[in-house]
Here is the input.
Amino acid sequence: MATKRPLLKLSHVDTHYGPIPILRDVNIEVYPGEIVCLLGGNASGKSTTLKTILGLVKPTRGTIEFRGERIDGLPTGHIVARGISIVPENRRIFPEMTVLENLEMGAYLRRDRDGIEEDLERVFQLFPRLKERLSQLGGTLSGGEQQMLAMGRALMSRPSLLLMDEPSMGLAPVLVERIFELIQQINRQGTTIFMVEQNANMALSIADRGYVLQTGRVVLADTAQNLLQNEMMRKAYLGT
Ligand SMILES: Nc1ncnc2c1ncn2[C@@H]1O[C@H](COP(=O)(O)OP(=O)(O)O)[C@@H](O)[C@H]1O
Ligand SMILES: [Mg+2]
Here is the structure.
């Protein structure tokens, strides 16, 4: 990994909400092709990290590079156009829009009709259930289907880096397994994944590496295998 250039690199990132410090000196690197997870307890700053990458929160210190170029300070639309998209916390699909309209929203920055059609087909291959429900309103889908729709929508901007905020939240265990299989499949098709999870066991079972946040600081960074063995991890996050 050390010889490759990181796809995403956060260097010494601080963020604040008003005067309140949230992230403190965060350093994270994600390499092309990896699945990297960001773990940590409630309110440790995981979602804030994703929002900062996407330009929804501006860092008060530090830099964020994507493909070696600074993206901190860019508007979110520009960051998405460069190849980063997000499956947000609690899915946040558009409940009053149909499945197809939700998917099309994911491609709103694109003008390449043929490419969009190709990506729709790819989404239908990954999620056949969505194809069966094209005209159903998003809000009437089950939780698992909404998660698939949120993933499909995020893929419609053809991202090279997919950010995911707690994809397992609120889903039954069998669906969580299915979603994690799909994340692996998306990764194998060439999309790099940076994923926030509370379900550390599950996330580490598919990740290459992980970072652990505590009150806005990275306190551990290691391979998934080492994190699964780590004493502090086992006590605090893995329940083993
Ligand atoms: N828009 C906001 N304004 C003020 N404080 C916020 C805002 N969003 C999150 N916070 C606070 O920032 C801290 C980190 O939140 P968050 O990044 O959502 O944590 P996590 O995703 O790890 O649960 C929490 O204390 C939360 O209350
Ligand atoms: Mg969160």
